[in-house]
Amino acid sequence: MSLQVIGPKIRGFICTNAHPTGCLKNVQSQIDLAKKDIESTENTPNILVIGASTGYGLASRIALTWGYGANTIGVFFERPPSGNKTGSTGYYNSAAFHQMAAQDKFTAISINGDAFSDQIKQKTIDQIQEHFGQIDLVVYSLASPRRIHPKTGVDHRSVLKPVGDPCIGKTIDLTNENVTDITIDPATNEEIADTIAVMGGEDLSFWVELLLSEDLLAPRANIVAYSYIGPQITDQIYSSGTIGLAKADLEQRINAIDTRLLDQINGRAYLSVNKAVVSQASAAIPIVPLYISILYQIMDAKNLNEEPIDQMIRLFSEYLGPDLVPMVDENRRIRMDDRELRSDVVAEVNEKWSLVNNDNFHELADFEGYKKSFRNLFGFEIDDVDYGQPVETEVTIPLV
Fold it and tell me: What is the model's pTM?
């Protein structure tokens, strides 16, 4: 037992604690959106979600479980509570997921550990063989700043930098809450290679090779990996930067995996390009918090905005659900960012971006909404949660 009154501990774009009741409420609200009547069937889908505890990965697991009755294995790397320290937000999200899946009698298996490692891959393989037999869909939603390569032992760390020329732009200083001009020096060749090693597609290729070698992908199984492109405003720090090169590597490997799956099991592999969302990862990218603050104000006014759960419900109901063949762009990508990049949205974002400065950004951008969304990620500022009451932080997950 460890009852505590928990308030947010936030420094800039980092929150070091989480509120278990707030996280549970977050998960419950996503389940409420995804829940629909599920017809009884002998062909219950078996899903592997790699990166299953936050953001698009968690939303995928929820949408597939409560929307389609799926059996899921979720792999994540989260910090459990210890003494007076809370668990991470992903830990509490996963605990809430398991609690509600058990209540609704869904099969859910979770593995907490480094998905890049051979050990966790093998543990996952063992669980699939024991409980599921084969997997119908693999969701790859892994986001990490660091990867220890399982073959070489090299410790790769990603960077958020432009490539070639310095990036000159404006961003929100999240500590002082003002708009500032920034200049970011370009990445070195070593930094580029490290970022591709962490955030590119090699790890997914390793997963697929192992699943195929053990005959664990069902006939016509699909694989989907998540990516982001974004507008011209963020291009230099994102799509044309180190992250963009890593995502290009992921896309190349997805296409190679697609060829392999089509040949061996009549399966397919897709890249889903999703919209910008508030996350701890996106908060760390210069320019992006200011861009999202402007974007959300505009998309909210047009009733176009989507949280990760909305996106994943749409992805599986319109593109990757049972018996669906997804519509793709000329590069064979699923474009879930279609509303973010709609011409009228882009035009309004560009106009506000050209005008925004330290004096008017609270008018031209919804920064208060951005801050609330960021705190919500960690279970804070959630409606109907009494933050003055002590809560139990020692929450457990039935891990294997």
Answer: 0.96
Cα–Cα distance for residue pair 50/42, rounded to 1 Å? 25
Q: Which residues are CB-contacts of 267 (< 8 A; sequence separation ≥ 6)?
A: 217, 219, 220, 221, 222, 223, 261
Residue 232 has pLDDT above 80, yes or no: yes
| Residue 129: CA count within 13 A, CB half-sphere | 12
Look up residue 292 and give its two tokens: 């999202």
Angle, vertex CA 269, rays to CA 311 and CA 203, nearest 5: 95
The strand pairing partners of 155, in sequence order, are: 148
Q: Which residues are known to be catalytic?
A: 238
Once rounded to an integer, what is the mean pLDDT over residues 55-79?
A: 97
How many angstroms separate the Cα of 91 from the Cα of each of 72, 83, 125, 377, 378?
Answer: 17, 15, 22, 12, 10
Domains of the chain: 3-392 (3.40.50.720)
> Please, are residues 230 and 295 in contact by the beta-carbon 8 Å criterion?
no
Q: Which of 170-184, 317-331, 364-378 has the lowest mean pLDDT?
A: 170-184
Sign of CA dihedral 82, 87, 93, 96: positive
- Structure-token pair, residue 321: 């659900």
Q: What is the signed CA dihedral for 235, 240, 245, 249, rounded to 10 degrees?
A: 70
